[in-house]
Amino acid sequence: MVFPVAMSEDTEEHLRRLTHDWQMIADLAFSDLVLWAPASQPGSNDTTGFTAVAQARPFTAQTTLHRDVVGSSPRVGLKPLVQQAWMTGQTVNPNDVPNPGSSLGVAVWPVMRGGHPIAVVTVHQNLTTQRVPSRLEAIYRLSADDVLRMIAQGTWPEPDAHSPTVVWDNPRVGDGMIRMDAHGLVTFASPNAISALRKLGISEQLEGRQLSRLALDYMDQRRPVDENLPAVLFGRSAGRASIDLRTVSLSLRSVPLRRDGERFGALVLLREVTEIRRRDLKLMGKDATIREVHHRVKNNLQTVGSLLRMQSRRMSSPEARRGLEQAMQRVDTIALVHETMSFTTEDDLDMDGLLSRQFTLAVEVASAAPNVRARMHGSFGTLPGSMATPLALVINELATNAVEHGTKAGGGVVELEASRRTDDDGEWLSIIMRDEGPTDQADTVPVKPSGAGGLGLQIVTTLVESDLGGRIEWHPRSEAGDQLPGTEVRITVPLHDR
After folding, report:
1. Predicted confidence (pLDDT) per residue in 473-485, tens digit
2. Does residue 157 have a cis peptide bond before it, meaning omega lies within 30 degrees of 0?
3. What is the DSSP annotation of 435-480?
4. Helix 388-406, helix 318-341: angle, nearest 10
5. What keywords does the record list, in alphabetical order (predicted)?
6. What are the tens digits of pLDDT across the range 204-228?
7. Residue 498 CB: number of other CB atoms within 10 A?
8. For a Cys staple, 454 with which of 313, 419, 449, 450, CB 3.0–4.6 Å?
9. Same structural domain for residues 89 and 118?
């Protein structure tokens, strides 16, 4: 949501929470909602301009505003009503300003915060479909007016109540609604709400009964109860809770109704979510299985690494022993990636910890001199998990090569620098590996991994160009235009296609 002028952080947060939660109002009112924000700073001489910053359409009725009005100004007939609500801080009803030529009924409600208007909400109802409303429609519209009245009094959304997160089991008006009085007695229950409670085994008449006592009587007292459940069922405070009974799961949400600071009733939205919970449990089981697979792959790779280590000790040829050691290090690198992925279920990984650890280990394993140090700058950030193994192997090969061919007998420093940039072509990851070069290295001759055409070069080139879709370059090391001993390997990987 983009505001036409800068607002205080508290004001913006209040409006965001309002629009995050106002779908309930649109469904109860069978109407479209539009939020209008002032186009000039409060207190300025110009108080005539407003811009639509959010819009909601009802799921319970046909939309009235077929065109998206976000970013536009109020039309000629609506503008004075919005101005009147803003200037007076009072509601403007369609009956107050008759407009015989229009088939739209528009009610205008100020959004108050701290005793002052911060925005205006317009409620657009299609009058061409009006008829004698059913009891359900009448109570829905009454409930919508109650919530809108709280908005105009600055008491909704409640400052100390967190807006419900967008989750699949979030109850909606059409899923079932119960209206209660100040004593928690049910005054109305929609047909869907009655059906949902009957699936729990509650078949008694709801109206005139206390919902909290009725539901808790059916709960298994030996099983733990959601600590928010009593308050939600009674409507004392805004919140969410769940009931799990007889293999049936019910998600509930309460909206206390207040007038002049006093609670006079509450709305409880409820939804039967048994199938959703069952699927969630299956997904959780699959996530656990995936983590276990990564853990077992890591263990198997470590076993392979141990076997290679044992075999290398039996080799009399230094070249064969070195080859096995390099293979063992590559296996350990892949094992480290699987170990990291066994602790998360996310598709994206924070690469800084993983690649920093791999870089440090690769330098320590490859260095014979005690004074070879690994130094890392910048950040890889969060990247797709599919990039973890190729990046870790590339870092391992480059670090190993830098230690073997780019450090002196007395030690040295191997540097790794990572950064991200964005240009017209998208986002890019840049990786630079620097070494100091041996004393006898020519300044203009960069050293490639494992020698030209070696296995290390083939691994790095294949991983960068094929697996990561990037490019790799070797250059003599330079700083501030001055050429220095050593090699600088630069890798650029595109992120915009991932």
Report:
1. 988 877 655 566 7
2. yes
3. ----TT--TT-PPPTTSTT-HHHHHHHHIIIIIS--EEEEEEEEET
4. 140
5. ATP-binding, Kinase, Nucleotide-binding, Phosphoprotein, Transferase
6. 889 999 988 888 877 765 566 677 8
7. 15
8. 450
9. yes
What average pLDDT values come out for the chain (498 residues) when binned by 10 residues?
85 93 95 92 62 94 91 90 91 62 75 93 80 87 95 85 52 94 94 91 89 80 71 89 82 92 94 80 74 82 84 83 81 86 80 89 77 88 89 90 78 89 89 75 45 69 90 80 75 83
Place of tokens 């109002």: 25
Instruction: Report the domain count for the chain.
Output: 4
Enter the tokens of residue 392.
């870790």
User: 476 and 365: one domain?
Assistant: yes
Q: Is residue 388 part of a domain?
A: yes
Q: Could you say which of 345, 368, 385 is where a domain stops?
A: 345
Nearest partner of 30 among 179, 153, 145, judged by Cα? 145
Q: Is 217 exposed, middle or buried (0-12, 13-18, 19+ CB in 10 A)?
A: exposed
Alpha-carbon gap, residue 22 to 121, rounded angstroms: 10
Task: Identify whether residues 237 and 380 lie together within a single domain.
Answer: no
For residues 371 and 497, state if they share a domain.
Answer: yes
479 with 389, same domain: the answer is yes
Q: Do 250 and 279 fall within a single domain?
A: no
- The pTM score is 0.63
C-beta of residue 122 within 8 angstroms of C-beta of residue 83: no
The answer to whether residue 168 sits within a structural domain is no
* Opening angle at CA 61, ends 57 and 66, nearest 5: 45
Residue 138: Cβ within 10 Å count = 12
